[in-house]
From TrEMBL:
It comes from the Eukaryota. Pfam families: Trehalose_PPase. Belongs to the trehalose phosphatase family. Its EC number is 3.1.3.12. Gene3D superfamilies: HAD superfamily/HAD-like (3.40.50.1000). Removes the phosphate from trehalose 6-phosphate to produce free trehalose. Trehalose accumulation in plant may improve abiotic stress tolerance. This is Trehalose 6-phosphate phosphatase. It catalyses: alpha,alpha-trehalose 6-phosphate + H2O = alpha,alpha-trehalose + phosphate. Keywords: Hydrolase, Stress response. GO terms for molecular function: trehalose-phosphatase activity. Its cofactor is a divalent metal cation. NCBIfam families: HAD-SF-IIB, T6PP.
Amino acid sequence: MTKQNVVVSEADAEIMNMAISVAVANSSLFTAVAEKPPVGPPGYISISRKRFMNLKNLDSFNGAERMNSWVDSMRASSPTHIKSSSFLKEDWILHHPSALDMFEQIIDASKGKQIVMFLDYDGTLSPIVEDPDRAFMSDAMRKTVKKVARCFPTAIVSGRCREKVYKFVRLAELYYAGSHGMDIKGPPKGSKYMKVCQGVLCQPASEFLPMIDEVYRLLVDKTKSTPGAKVENNKFCLSVHFRCVDEKKWNELFMQVRSILKEYSMLKLTQGRKVLEIRPTIKWDKGKALEFILESLGYANCTDVFPVYIGDDRTDEDAFKVLRERGQGFGILVSKVPKETNATYSLQEPAEVMDFLQRLVEWKRQSVRAHANL
């Protein structure tokens, strides 16, 4: 196994000594020039390979002051640490208006097309909680999602393993895409919207399972000395939750994770909302999962399909980007604070997500009744 430092993602080039231009809705609204080295985009650990290699051996830095400084900057980029003052909220809302306020415009855009719903789980259908094992969705939300699935093809796309998401949601009529889309299974045979593949199953990262299991055991052993840290095995990826980790222990936890991953060149590390995500380096993400599900439904090259993706995490941006590039449907970011995003609209919390879904169901029912009366 090749030893190579691949802890960080090469998502953005030359971010350590240049100004950051924040692009919102494909237009630059504001540019921030930092005197200190700026951090990467919200919720993403990024440093260019050229800059990283120039550091030579991070482990041998005297006193690790520079490493700590970099980690502090990276931590500050987390969505939970970004202050709304970093953005002009009013300007951001103009470019990402509330999906509730724009509901009629959304419906107008979808007329004559087949709506397909894609929903993230944590922070979208359920609130963010300290214990990830207790991220339960409300009964009201479950009933709402069930109604949505009766009206439109619906998929849950999550970073959690598919089996765990299913235990939370408990609705058999949905598509489930776990492990950031690397484990996809469709509804059972006979489902209303299943047109092509019955019970379709996609697992593009199967060859990584032994490696992921091995890293999981190492992480559990290494992080048990850090109070509050929790390692979650999501089958095709791993999550190291640090929501309950003391700020003083954060650097230690990050270094522990990094020390393990430098032995595994086929895995990459990114940061989400109070979680470090470890995934295979294959070109597969939530955006690819969205495209795969659309193809499974028979909508691969259709112009009359209208995908809607609702999510709150950095990893959902891959799906938002796909929708922008396709020029079909739109993404909705769930967030109370402005963030750089490829989503078109916004909602503030799961309660607003439920409101939006309920309005969508009611519109569909009224449309069916009106058509029946013609």
